[in-house]
Specification:
Blueprint (H helix, E strand, L loop, with lengths): L8 E12 L2 E13 L4 E5 L6 H8 L8 E10 L2 E2 L5 H7 L4 E4 L3 H4 L6 H13 L3 H14 L5 H4 L9 H13 L5 E5 L7 H18 L2 E6 L2 H7 L2 E6 L2 E7 H6 L4 H8 L50 E4 L2 E3 L3 E2 L4 E2 L3
Parallel strand pairs: 3-8, 3-9, 6-7, 7-8
Antiparallel strand pairs: 1-2, 1-4, 4-5, 9-10, 10-12, 11-12, 13-14
Helix pairs in contact: 4-5, 5-7
Amino acid sequence: MPDGALPVLDVRDLKTVFQTRGGEVHAVNDVSFSLKPGELLGVVGESGSGKSVTMMSLLGLLPSPPAEIRNGSVMFEGNDLLHVSQETLRSVRGGRIGFVFQDPMTSLNPVYQVGFQIMEPLRKHMGMTKQEAAKRAQELLELVGIPDAKQRLLDYPHQFSGGMRQRVMIAIALACDPQVLIADEPTTALDVTIQAQILELMKDLRDKLGMAVIWITHDLGVIAGIADRVMVMYGGQVVEHAPVHELFSDPQHPYTRALLKTIPKIHAERATRLTIIEGQPPMITDAPTSCAFRDRCDVAFDRCAVENPPRFDLGGGHDAACFFDARTGGPRDA
């Protein structure tokens, strides 16, 4: 990936709110990031941190109501996806931007053959004939490592294992040669052997096809092996963003450091109890006016309760939204 390459996707100040019976839930708060061609961006955080909602907001995949995008821009191929027609958005969704959902069993339609489900976007977005789409569908199944691909096109989702269904979902997402692939925890429900196979597959496909990838997960171990950059989310906000090696070697946000401590140490000299992050993630019912992590933080001080920290630029593509400077061990200058 060239350092000076222009972003293929550029998101600025995205804000998404849900209307509920109990009031508003501010699920995504001023999220900004960019993605360059061929780059893999890992997005990590606990359940409820805003990872999936952020990415679904980009493509208009949230039902409205209750969801409402209050602010922001999503620039892709010269268009702001938040302000284009539904027809244009549909042509981008599943065409230029692919999406792999978390649960392949509920994402694949159980009453249609797998071949039909792969061929559908090819005929809709690329105008292929039935014969052309069938040939391409077979090539896609072969690409994602499913043997006897021509025959398997006639099978139904229940005839595939969990790992194979996930490969089918990846084939569907790749059908129209997308510039960007968004993968929402695609290995969560799979055993570790199949997880490793899917991760290896994704790395190979990125190298072969040159597409940019956003990989959503709660597993930092997965991110360590595949990502170029990492974006850590908490309370609907980006709390840290850094090149992957720097995030692991020099984490600057207390939440990132807490997440890293929860990873079991295989080569530890002696057995130790697993570390947990005490407390629960916040329910953001108002626009943030203080640090969302302060109640669970071991270095919080008075300022954290009255001001929401901005993302401080730490140099080298690294930033963190924290008033505490982990490098000096004291408060960060305003």
